[in-house]
Amino acid sequence: MDAANESSEGAPFILLGLTTSPGQQQPLFVLFLALYVAGILGNGLIVAAIQASPALHAPMYFLLAHLSFADLCFTSVTVPKMLANLLAHDSSISLAGCLTQMYFFFALGVTDSCLLAAMAYDRYVAIRHPLHYATRMSRAMCTALVGTAWLVSHLHSLLHILFMARLSFCASHQVPHFFCDHQPILRLSCSDIRHIQLLIFTEGAAVVVTPFLLILASYGAIAAAVLRLPSASGRLRAVSTCGSHLAVVGLFYGTVIAVYFQPTSRYEAERGRVATVMYTVVTPMLNPVIYSFRNRDMQGALRSLFTGRRISSSDS
Q1: Which residue in 102, 213, 272, 308 has a CA-CA distance of 20 to 30 Å to 132?
Q2: Dihedral through CA 108, CA 219, CA 214, CA 184, nearest 10?
């Protein structure tokens, strides 16, 4: 029995992916390849446009550039492996590869969450304290917000991976997912996982919920300020500056809550795969569209990338 356990411990994981039907694999490959390329190009263009255009060297766009870069990396953690598995007969991944994928998935997901909170704070300061915006959202402040987001996310991820690396796997190694997510991996472990579950529902929840609560608080204060504006046009203008961010927050947190805020025993593989596709593939692809839609500064900067015309801050 011990020899069988040791053999199983060293065996790679098998990612079952989105489907095991050969007839569905090629259409899914084409679909997700198109979504992945669109997401990479869209987020890459956002970063390039913000870097190239002086008109976009404002705090809001500084934060957006980091969010787009994080999204670009986030989708690249899982989708290339998923695409390879849809075409290849071998869908195995080693324990080290699995933990590495899980580390960057956790880190970049939390980075997204923290950056969305920083962007909500930016909108709060712009609407509630417009006269102090330049001082409150200085370059140093923006750098501190971004640096904190990246630092907290990697410390959080490292803590979880150190716990996951201590687990034993002595039964099935078939993962009913297209990447190494912690919920299906935990269900395969023959170790006591209560301490990891406690970590997930305390520290893990705090890292994800705290930015969400800060976003809600920021928009609560923004709503109170908007309702006090005397003119309807002023209220509409204030709301329009927040619409894109609210759409992204809704997409991101809606699917994250659906997947992760439930006990491991209640995890449903099919529901988890569908929701995960939304925030790992679809949301990063939609973000550039959402943020550039009806944003004249961003549209002008994107046009300048293709025409070679440099846009100054006075042009906007």
Answers
A1: 213
A2: -40
